[in-house]
Write a structure and sequence with these properties.
8 helices, 4-stranded antiparallel beta sheet, alpha/beta
């Protein structure tokens, strides 16, 4: 089942997130799906609604969207499986993904984020909060808006990012903090870039270990703590009271929210 909602916008907002953004809403409860599409449509977004995970993945493989809103418990293929499949695909591997879930346990939320989601919203949710989270996600730069250039070692180079006082240019391997150049090791650079491009998103130590060390079997989760401490000494004015690299006790680390 599909639901499309399009509303003309009378006053064009200056925000880039309102310029014909296309949103795929995957929710099997018709009332919730239609409510989400209605209010995002009123914001000027173009919404397509689906109720099945397999259909959603098929659409995500066919067309490029600006945002995916995924319910966890959907028929055919659950939302987390859709999320992981989209992240490993091509057309929308960099699309912002907002997870809707009735589960309130912290472990469930962390699982969603580690499956590739950028944010989550717990049911029941308020329309104003939904719209605010969608706006925030659409303001973030997409990780690979065009085919990535290759670095000197053959690895992909993502787009530049600027968040708070931190500027990161992967192509030039340059980091500036409040206008000041900062020299980082390769691991420090990759950790900072990963967290900064997912500002506000919590990564467990295990997830960072897999992303930064890339399967090295001779390191442990304590290596993550050591790397974070080193990076804080380089980018924080007071490493004991960090502004950028924040600890989420019992879970892991995140870059300060946008």
């Amino acid at each position: 089942m599909r639901t499309k909602t399009e509303h003309p916008v009378g006053d064009i907002d200056a925000d880039a997130d309102k310029h014909a953004a296309r949103v795929l809403v995957v929710e099997d409860e018709p009332n919730i799906r239609e409510l989400v599409c209605l209010h995002l449509g009123l914001e000027g977004y173009t919404c397509e609604g689906l109720a099945d995970g397999h259909l959603a993945l098929e659409r995500a493989e066919q067309e490029r969207f600006d945002l995916l809103v995924l319910d966890v418990m959907i028929p055919g293929l659950d939302g987390l499986s859709v999320c992981r499949a989209v992240r490993s695909g091509r057309a929308n591997r960099d699309v912002p993904i907002l997870i809707l879930t009735a589960r309130t346990e912290e472990s469930d939320k962390v699982l969603g984020l580690e499956s590739g989601a950028d944010d989550y919203l717990t049911k029941p949710f308020g329309v104003r909060e939904l719209v605010a989270r969608v706006r925030a996600l659409l303001r973030r730069p997409r990780r690979t808006p065009a085919p990535a250039a290759a670095g000197a070692n053959g690895s992909e180079v993502g787009p530049p990012v600027r968040v708070h006082d931190v500027e990161i240019d992967p192509a030039r391997r340059r980091v500036r903090i409040a206008g000041r150049d900062v020299e980082l090791t390769d691991q420090e650079f990759r950790l900072l870039y990963l967290l900064a491009t997912h500002a506000g998103i919590v990564f467990s130590r295990e997830a960072l270990l897999a992303r930064i060390w890339r399967g090295d079997t001779f390191v442990t989760v304590r290596s993550v703590d050591t790397l974070v401490k080193r990076l804080r000494r380089r980018i924080e004015s007071d490493p004991a009271q960090p502004r950028f690299l924040l600890t989420v006790w019992g879970v892991g680390y995140k870059f300060a929210d946008v």
